[in-house]
Amino acid sequence: MSPTSRFDIQLAEPRLPTADRTAKMQNLSFGKVLSEHMVVVPYREGEGWLKGQLRPFGPLSISPAANVLHYGQAIFEGFKAYRQSDGGIKSFRPRANGRRFNESAARLAMPEVPLDIFVEGADLLCQTDHEWVPGTLDSERLHDESYYFRPFMIGLGDFLGVRAAEEYLFLIIGGPAGSYFQGGIKPVTIWVEEEFVRAAPGGTGRAKCAGNYAASLLPGKLAKQRGCDQALYLDSTHHRYLEELGGMNVFLVLQEGTRTVIATPEKTGTILEGVTRDSLIIVARDLGFDVEERRISIDEVEQAHRTGALKEAFACGTAAVISPIGSLMSRRGTWTINENKVGEVSMRLRAALLDIQYGLTPDTRNWMHSIL
Question: Which of 247, 91, 234, 127 is nearest to 180 (CA)?
Fold first, then answer.
């Protein structure tokens, strides 16, 4: 089935003038500029997914009794498309994000979105708004621009009883995104959060649901009051083992004798199984690094810092790719990592992944999906 048979198309009229679009795309940051259209696909219990629409970006009309407003049935994803060296456009691992989206949907008792709708909807949006796809990647890989997709689904309805909704909307919006780092890549300071927890066994930690991010806002705000950029959460059972940041996975670079080991917390059902995380593990192994997915205690981090074995640390996610960690702060004290400088291993991994995404090195794993 072609995208045009899955979606009715209503174009914005008139389109934004070129000069206005160009002005909006100057000095891009992350997530502040959205392109002119959006994809909307309704679902009704008993009927399934109905025909979608590509229509001008604009407000939604929902009942004040909609499930999402009271019981939080809301999930989302994020992935990017990149302008290639030949002028074409490709997105990075969209089907992997679609599969994770459906894992989140299942956990929140929401219907799964067929992967063809997920991918073709994003393709149609990007093809329609292709002039909004920037194409800058500087030679040092310190500044990168892309088109960011935000697929999401919300529960609708007009009933206040506590139950799963019978109607849903799946939507995709997006827009041009600049480097996550304004003024260049700088190491961040992270607060090790020992009071609040992000997720518990049996909870929604593995799901990319809105409630997880709402619960992270207060600890994140308190971390900023302490002079930190984000919070790093520990496990809810022992309050000892590293989990993840509010929206990013975490890695350590350890020197163990002659081996450089890249370690990251194992998947336990309480951390988000990031597509960037998975990609970096594969890239690191391709580059010859030893990578370990295992439990990492905060005591081990402290010991590795004291002995000098902790060489680098970084967080990763779709928005930033890699964000170097310059110091960890906690009630135990402050641990400066790599003299608060950007690490060689971190930047090597970041450059290798960006080169795949921009088509500068061969895509041996077929991660890139052609859009235009």
Answer: 247
- Residue 234: in which H helix or E strand, if any? strand 230-234
**Domain residue extents for the chain:** 3-181, 188-341
Contact 86, 65 (CB under 8 A): no
Whether the bond between 265 and the residue before it is cis, its omega within 30 degrees of 0, is no
Q: Which of 115, 75, 125, 110 is nearest to 94 (CA)?
A: 115
Rg (CA), the chain: 21
CA 94, 99, 104, 105 torsion: positive or negative? positive
CA 57-354-293 angle, 5° bins: 105
- ∠ CA 140-290-306, nearest 5°, is 85
> Domain 3-181 belongs to what topology?
D-amino Acid Aminotransferase; Chain A, domain 1 (3.30.470)
Answer whether 3-181 and 188-341 agree in fold.
no
Return the CATH architecture of domain 188-341.
Answer: Alpha-Beta Barrel (3.20)
Print pLDDT tens along the chain (372 aa).
555 679 999 999 999 999 999 999 998 989 899 999 999 999 999 999 999 999 999 999 999 999 999 999 999 999 999 999 899 999 999 999 999 999 999 999 999 999 999 999 999 999 999 999 998 888 778 788 999 999 999 999 999 999 999 999 999 999 999 887 766 789 999 999 999 999 999 999 999 999 999 999 999 999 999 999 999 999 999 999 999 998 899 999 999 999 999 999 999 999 999 999 999 999 999 999 999 999 999 999 999 999 999 999 999 999 989 999 999 999 999 999 999 999 999 999 999 999 999 999 999 999 999 999
Cα–Cα distance, 172 to 178 (Å, whole number): 19
Q: How far apart, in whole angstroms, are the C-alpha atoms of residue 275 and residue 293? A: 15
